[in-house]
Amino acid sequence: SSAPPPPPRAGSSAPPAPPLAGASTPPAPPLAGASAPSASPPAGPPTPAPPVPAQPLAALRDTARVTPHDRWSLADYANLCACVRAFPTHVPWIQAQLGLTPETWRALHGLWQERFQRDAGLRDKWQQLIAQRLPHWKQG
């Protein structure tokens, strides 16, 4: 390994030397409004809540509170999927708001995927419902 280059002399206009290979550099600060991807847990405080419109969120909370995940209607499931499409980096926050555990979340999606495999018309209707609900989520 070679020694680092000497620092520039006072008054020199040379740019600073790049960091050495393998040297640890602190990560760049996030851009304003950016959030961590949902796959990695936040390193510090939790990711702030997205600007979710109150009315559609309240409707989803009511569904999650009173209806077991395996009895959600197609419209309820499409509404949840529209929310996730509007706020894809906030899935853990959405799960928490609805009281859905990761296991319940996977079971809910798995159940609907099985139904869609059996009935292509149901999948088409689901896609239509998502398209109808998405603007309600994005208006926040």
Shape: globular
- Beta strands, count: 0
Main beta sheet: none
Order of helices and strands: HHHHH
Structural category is mainly alpha
Tell me the β content: under 5%
Rg on CA atoms, Å: 23 Å
Given as residue ranges, the uncertain stretches (5+ residues, pLDDT < 50) are 4-45
Distance between the termini: 55 Å
- Helix content bin: 40-55%
Mean pLDDT level: 72
Number of helices, where a helix is a run of at least 4 consecutive DSSP H or I residues: 5
Give a brief rundown of this model.
With 140 residues, this protein is an all-alpha fold. The protein has helices at 54-66, 74-86, 91-98, 102-118, 120-138.
List the helices and strands and how they pair.
Elements: H1 54-66, H2 74-86, H3 91-98, H4 102-118, H5 120-138
Helix pairs in contact: 1-2, 2-5, 4-5
Structure description:
The protein is mainly α. The protein contains 5 helices and no strands. It is globular. The N and C termini lie far apart (55 Å). About 30% of the residues have low confidence.
Properties at a glance:
50% helix, globular, 140 residues
